[in-house]
């Protein structure tokens, strides 16, 4: 396996130069090369994959709304998913020093698979396309909660792992696309290839839903077939994510950074002793204090986004021209521009943390603007303003999330980067939970 000289990259590993010196020659710093960009592509796939189950449920809104017409499906799904996910991440943070990330993530993927399989199986054996079978609705809500548990296990672990690596891998996870930083000295994927990968993976969820809706007739049987095909596709992608994640640990470049983390952790253990009890709590609060403002920024991003998307977009805005296609088109617009925002970070990343955090609070302006689209003059309630605002909502959501998730783990020591990543996920889920609850105020 080839190696590459990366003196500047040592700092991006996590800033722990003393630990780096234990593994690296001071005269010639070398790390294993990411041959064929395989590790990069795997982390890109993992980053898009852990969002797939959530997207599977919210993008099939027409199917679930048809089956359960008296339920506010999107809002209930969002509240259950986020609150359960929040509880899951809190437990993970409390016991992060005693648990194994590989076991956590594989357990989460198993729960994701179980949740996705449950929907088509329940349709075939129990619901059978019948409307108003609310026993199945409660089971579906329970399955969404199971997805929330899985999300805490997988997202916290994957983001935490990426936080231990150079920033290009966090870009791959958060953005679904990235390019190597010029200072890294590692050749990256071409911009054109990144765009093709991103469109294939990140937006495929929405495009598949549009295609299945167009192929099948818009009756009970057509909705049923299209939704089942959609969930089957999601199951296949989730199986691929399980395979990719377990392959990643065998790659030399990932092994190298894992070894670097072990050296840093052993060094800290020799200096401070075993990180348990009071010492762990003290260390944890130190990590939280270091990344808290990045966390506040991430939290406010998702409070604003979830106040509006998906509930208001799929239930409260209407179009006489597009009819029931309007929410599907708006979800696709959001996903595409969320992708665009995240693909901007390889071209320009805002390295001023205060400016980036300030930008997240400026997104609060979306709330009165969308309120105007619901209750303002007729010109604001037309299709074009709603679509433009939805695109901007996705664009800013993608860019600022990616920037803050890249910057924050690099502010702590290498051995604590995983915990910092999980703490950021906690802030993210708190934002999602608050936003999903506040989304109910749009119906008042």
From TrEMBL:
Its membrane topology: Multi-pass membrane protein
Keywords associated with the record: Membrane, Transmembrane, Transmembrane helix, Transport
Regions that span the bilayer: 38-56, 76-96, 108-127, 228-248, 293-313, 325-349, 355-374, 386-408, 420-443
Origin superkingdom: Eukaryota
Alphabetized InterPro entries for the sequence: Eqnu_transpt
Gene Ontology terms for molecular function: nucleoside transmembrane transporter activity
Region forming the signal peptide: none
One Pfam family cited in the UniProt record for this chain: Nucleoside_tran
Primary location: membrane
Keyword Mitochondrion set for record: no
Subcellular location: Membrane
Entry GO CC: plasma membrane
Keyword Transport: yes
Family: Belongs to the SLC29A/ENT transporter (TC 2.A.57) family.
Entry protein name: Solute carrier family 29 (Equilibrative nucleoside transporter), member 1/2/3
């Amino acid at each position: 396996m080839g190696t590459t000289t990366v003196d500047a990259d040592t700092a991006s590993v996590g800033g722990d130069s003393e630990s780096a010196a234990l593994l690296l020659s001071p005269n010639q710093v070398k790390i294993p090369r990411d041959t064929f960009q395989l590790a990069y592509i795997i982390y890109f796939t993992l980053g898009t994959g852990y969002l797939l189950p959530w997207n599977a449920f919210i993008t099939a809104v027409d199917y679930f709304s048809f089956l359960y017409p008296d339920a506010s499906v999107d809002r209930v799904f969002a509240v259950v998913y986020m609150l359960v996910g929040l509880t899951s991440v809190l437990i993970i943070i409390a016991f992060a020093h005693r648990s194994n990330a590989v076991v956590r993530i594989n357990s989460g993927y198993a729960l994701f698979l179980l949740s996705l399989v449950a929907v088509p199986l329940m349709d075939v054996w129990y619901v059978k396309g019948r409307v108003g079978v609310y026993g199945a609705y409660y089971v579906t809500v329970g399955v969404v909660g199971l997805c929330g548990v899985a999300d805490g296990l997988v997202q916290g672990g994957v983001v935490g792992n990426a936080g231990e690596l150079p920033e290009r891998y966090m870009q791959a996870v958060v953005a679904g696309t990235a390019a190597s930083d010029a200072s890294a000295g590692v050749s990256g994927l071409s911009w054109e290839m990144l765009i093709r990968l991103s469109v294939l993976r990140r937006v495929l969820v929405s495009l598949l839903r549009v295609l299945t809706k167009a192929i099948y007739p818009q009756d009970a049987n057509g909705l049923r077939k299209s939704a089942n095909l959609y969930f089957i596709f999601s199951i296949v992608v989730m199986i691929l994510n399980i395979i990719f994640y377990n392959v990643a640990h065998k790659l030399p470049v990932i092994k190298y950074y894992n070894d670097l983390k072990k050296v840093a952790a052993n060094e800290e253990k020799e200096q401070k002793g075993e990180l348990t009890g009071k010492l762990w709590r003290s260390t944890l609060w130190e990590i939280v204090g270091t990344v808290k403002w990045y966390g506040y920024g991430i939290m406010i991003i998702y409070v604003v986004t979830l106040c509006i998307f998906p509930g208001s977009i799929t239930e409260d805005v209407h179009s006489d021209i597009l009819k029931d296609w309007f929410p599907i088109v708006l979800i696709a617009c959001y996903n595409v521009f969320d992708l665009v925002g995240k693909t901007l970070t390889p071209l320009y990343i805002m390295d001023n943390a205060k400016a980036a955090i300030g930008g997240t609070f400026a997104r609060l302006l979306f709330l009165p603007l969308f309120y105007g689209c619901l209750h303002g003059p007729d010109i604001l309630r037309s299709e074009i303003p709603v679509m433009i605002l939805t695109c901007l909502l996705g664009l800013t959501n993608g860019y600022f999330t990616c920037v803050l998730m890249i910057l924050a783990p690099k502010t702590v020591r290498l051995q604590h980067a995983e915990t910092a990543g999980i703490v950021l996920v906690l802030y993210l889920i708190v934002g999602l939970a608050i936003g999903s609850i506040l989304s109910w105020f749009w119906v008042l």
